[in-house]
Amino acid sequence: MSKISIIVPIYNVEDYLAEAIESLIAQTIFQDLDILLIDDGSQDGSTDIAKDYAKKYSNISYYLKENGGLSSARNHGLQYVESKYTMFLDSDDMYTPQACEHLYDFAEENNLDIVVGDLVTFPTETPKYEWKKYYGNGNVVIDLTVGGEDLLRNPSACNKIFKTEILRDKTELFPVGRHFEDAFAIIPLMIDSKRIGLLDETIYLYRQRDNGTSIMDSVFTKEKNYYDYIELIKSLYTPFVEGQKVYQIKFAVEKFIYKTFHGYLNNIFLNDEIVFDDLAKANIFKQIQPIYQNISYKLLENLSNHRVIKTIYYALVTNDEALFVNPQLIVNQIIIRDGVLTSPKHFEIPEINSVHLYASIERLIARDDEIELIGEILSNNAIIDYRLQNPLVLQLKDIEDKTMEFPIQKFNKLDSPYLKQEEDSNCGIKVSIPKALINKSQNSFEIAVCIIEEATQERKHIATLAHGLFHRFKGKVDRQISLDVLPNRTVKLITNASLKEKLIHEKNKIMDHSKLRVGGKLRLMHHATNWALKKKNIVLVAERPDTFQDNSAAFFKYVNTQPNKKKNYYYLADGQSEAYQEAQKYGKVIPKDSIRHFLYLLSADTLVNSYDPDSYMRPSAYSKPEFYRLFGDLIHYNRVFLQHGVTYNNVVQAISNYRIGFEGIVITNKSEEALLKRNAYYNDNQLIPSGFSRYQRLKENIRSNEAIQFDQSQERTILLMPTWRKGLAPLSYDRKGEDFKLDPTKFLASDYYHFYNDLINNKEMIQALEEQNIKLKFFPHYEMRDLLEYFDQPQSDKIEIVPKEKNVQDLLIECDMLITDYSSVFFDVLFMKKPVLFTQFDIDDFYKKHYKKGYLDFEKNELGKSVSTIEETVQEIKNNIERGFTVSDTVLKNIAYYLEYAYQDDNSKTILDFIEKL
Fold first, then answer.
1. Which domains does the chain possess?
2. Does residue 47 come out as left (phi exceeding 0), alpha (psi in the -120 to 50 range) or beta?
3. Which of 778, 784, 812 is nearest to 796 (CA)?
4. How far apart are CA 901 and CA 910, in angstroms?
5. Residue 216 has pLDDT above 90, yes or no
6. pTM value?
7. Closest Cα partner for 650 from 917, 424, 401?
8. For 90-98, what is the mean pLDDT?
9. What are the C-alpha distances in Å from 471 to residues 75, 519, 637, 640, 903?
10. What percent of the chain clears pLDDT 70, i.e. is strictly above it?
11. What are the pLDDT digits (tens) for 465-483?
12. Which GO terms describe its molecular function (predicted)?
C-alpha cells in the first residue's frame, strides 16, 4: 500500500499542469505515492496531459468526471484513496521535493492526524500572513486547547497532510457550490484533531498568477462570496463557540471570525464598487448579530480607526439594526469641543461622535479681477451636504502670520463623484478672492478652510488639500499671481515673486542638489524652445494613440482643407500605428512620446480630442497626476472636447467645468445642453452647438426609410456593438507594460459574456439571418475587444466576430440595423435613419455601478425597442427584418430632436471657428 494518496483536481490548466505533476514525480518518496488526477471536465489540453502521465507511470491514475467545481473534484477523488495519509495539490501549484517525505515522517513519529507545512507564493512576494509567526523555531506540535489560535487562519487543504481515517466519513468534505471550501472543511478537522504538527520548512509553492486567475485571488468582488462567508462563520460559531467548553477553542474561533470577516464589512460599507442596499445590509445584520453580540467591543474597535467601521461594530454589539444599516452620521450641525469636531448626536463611544472633515480644492477660475476656487467638503465618516448650518470661511495666512478671511458659499455640487443616486446631495464650496486684496506686495499665502461654530464663533481649520489634478492650474493665474501645490497637497498663492525667487524656484524644480530631478531635463528643453514654439499657436489634435477614425480624425481632415487659419494644427498618434500613417495623408503628425510631442504639448495653445485629453495626450511615462505635478506650472493650453458620443447619461463628474474644466465642449441637442449647464456648470461661451465632425460623412448615407427588399444577391448587415463594463477590463491607458495580461475569469463569469455569447450562437436567430441573407457582425466597445477571443466561434458564416482593427464608422455606415445596450453610437445609426434595438439585460446593475441615468428613458422606447432577454432580442430582430429595417414615425420625430444640432451644413466649421477664437 502507498504511504500517501495525493488528489489533484484539474480544470483548464494546460499551461501549468505538467509543472505540478513533475513536482510530484520529483518527490523523494515518489514510489510510495498514489497520485489521483481528477479531471473536472477540462475543455483545453489538460486532459491529454493528464492521460499521458497516467500511461507513463503506474502510480498515477486518471479519472474523468462532469464539471462540478473544485470541491466536487476533491470529494470525487476521496473515494479512490487507499493510503494511510491523504494530501491535496492544486493543479497550478507545486510541492518542494522533500515535502511528502518530511510531512509523512513527522506525522508518523508523533502520531498526528494533521501536519502543516509552510507555504510561499510565486512569482509574487509571499504576504505576511498572521500564521507565519509560528515558523522559524523548528518543528513543533501545537495543542489548540492551549494556544496556536492563529493557525486557523491557514485553512488551506494543500499545505497539509491528513490521516485518511479522519476523512473517511466525510463524503462531502468540501461543500459544493460555495467559495471558501477549504475553510469549511479544514478548520473543523483541525479543531477536532486538537494536536497539530507544524513542519518548519517550505513544502508548498502557491502560484499567484500574473493575470489574476488563481483560485485564491480576490474574493470581495462577488456578492455571493459575502453570503458564503457568513455561512462559514455561522457553521463555526454554533459548534465551536456556543457549544464549546474549552475556553481556548472558543477564543480561537471567535478571533478567526471577527478578524477574517472584518475585510468583508470594510468592503460592504467603504468600497464604492460593492453595492449592498439597505435590505441586504439588514439581512446581513440579522445573520451575524447573534455571533457578535457576545464579543467585547474593545476587541472590535481596535480593528479599525474608521468611524463608520467602529459604528457598525457598536451596532452589532448593542443590537442596533438601524445604526448598522446606516452607520454614517447625517450631520447638519457640528460642535467644536476641545478642538475636536463633534456631532450633536451622542453615543456611549466618543469616537463615534467625532466628525472627520477635509476640503478638496478641485478648480481654479482666474478672472480679470478675482480668483475663484471651487471644491467640496468631504467626510470619511459622516454625511455632510450644503445644508450644513455651520458657516465656512477661507483663510489666507501670509508670511507674517496675518490672515484674511473670505466667506465660502455652500451649494449642492451635482458633479461630485460621491453622488451615487439622483436624490443624493453634498457640500460643494465656492469662494472668490479679489486680486486687489492679495496683489499689493510680494507675499505667499497658505490656503485653509475653517468651520465656525455659530454659538461660540470658534474656528477650526480642516485639512485643505488639492485634488490630484489641481496641479494643472498652477500656470493659469497671471504674471503677478502664481499657484503652488506642495508635496503634502496643501495649496499656496504666491504674489509678485521677484525674478530671483522665480529662478530659484525653477532651479529647485530641475535640480535636487547636484542631480537632475525627474522631468528636470525636459523642463530645461522646454525653456530653451518655448520662446519659439509658443509663436506657432500650436493646436494638438488626437484620439486614442492608435486610432484615426472618430471626431478628431474628421475634424483634422477638415482643418487641413481650410485656408487662412491663425493656428497650426498637428495630429498626435503612436508612431508605429496605422493611425499615424493614415493621419499623415491629411496633415502634419507628431509621434506620441517623442521629444517633439513633449515640447509641443507644453507650448501648445489648445488640445483637441474626442476622448479624455489628460489621459490620451500626456506622455505615456507619466500618470495624469504625476504629469501635472511635474509640469502643471508650465502649461497654458486650452482643451476642447469633441466627444465621441452624445452625452445622454449623467456622467458629468468626468467632464464637469468645476472638476475638469474644458474651454470648449461639443453638444448635439438641447437636453444635452441643459444637462451640461445644470449638472456640469458649463455656460453658453463654452458649449459648441455643432454636432459631431464625423456626421459630415454620415450625411451622405442617410436612408429614405423605405422598406428593404431582401434577396440572396445582396447580403444585408446587422451590427451588434455593446459598450464596455467597469471591472471586466481595465481601460486601455491603465494597461501597463508589454507583459500586461487581461484576467478572463471575471469576464467569463459575467452576465455580459453569457448574454452576448448565447446571442451570437442562438440557433433561432441564425436561422432567421440565413433565410434572408443577413450577416450579424459582433464588434464590442474598444475597451472590450481584447476579450473577443473568449467568445465561442459561431457555427455559421452569418455571424462574424469582427477584428478589433476595423473602422467603427465604416461598420456603422455599412449596417442596416444596430443592436447595442448603451453605446452612444446608436445616435450615429439613428442619424442615418436606421433602426436600433437596445439589449439591456442588466439595466438596473448598469445604472447602479457604471453610470447614472441622464435624460433618456429607455423604457419609453423613444429611439428604439428596449429588451432584456435573449428570447425578446431574437423576436425583435425578426420583427425588424419583417419591417424591412424601417424606422417608425415616432422614432423619426425623436431623432430630429435628439440630433438637432447635427443637421447643419458644416459641423466642423462651427468647431474650427470656436478654436480659432480661443
1. 4-217 (3.90.550.10), 224-303 (no CATH), 353-497 (2.60.40), 521-697 (3.40.50), 704-898 (3.40.50.12580)
2. alpha
3. 778
4. 11
5. no
6. 0.74
7. 424
8. 96
9. 58, 15, 14, 19, 39
10. 96
11. 999 889 888 888 888 899 9
12. CDP-glycerol glycerophosphotransferase activity; hexosyltransferase activity
| Amino acid found at 840 | Q
What pLDDT is stored for residue 793 in this prediction? 86
What is residue 452's DSSP assignment? E
CA angle 139, 144, 145 (to 5 degrees): 135
Q: Which of 270, 345, 256, 253 is nearest to 305 (CA)?
A: 270
Measure CA 75 to chain center: 36
Q: List own/partner pairs for 234-237 with CB under 8 A and 24 or more apart.
A: 234/287, 234/291, 235/184, 236/187, 236/188, 237/290, 237/291
Average pLDDT in the 349-363 region? 85
Which set of grid coordinates corresponds to residue 462? 480642516
Of the candidates 832, 723, 722, 712, the one whose C-alpha atom is nearest the C-alpha of residue 769 is 712
Which residues sit opposite 392 in a β-bridge? Answer: 451
> Which one has a higher pLDDT value, 275 or 295?
295
Give Cα separations from 186 to 55, 135, 257, 693, 744 (angstroms).
32, 20, 15, 63, 29
Q: What pLDDT is recorded for position 542?
A: 98
pLDDT digits (tens, 9 = 90+) for 450-470: 999 988 899 999 999 999 889
Among candidate residues 103, 115, 191, the one with its CA nearest the CA of residue 152: 191
Please give the C-alpha separations between residue 195 and each of 81, 125, 157, 476, in angstroms, as whole numbers.
Answer: 23, 30, 17, 70
For residue 877, what pLDDT is reported? 97
DSSP string computed for 541-555: EESSTT---SHHHHH
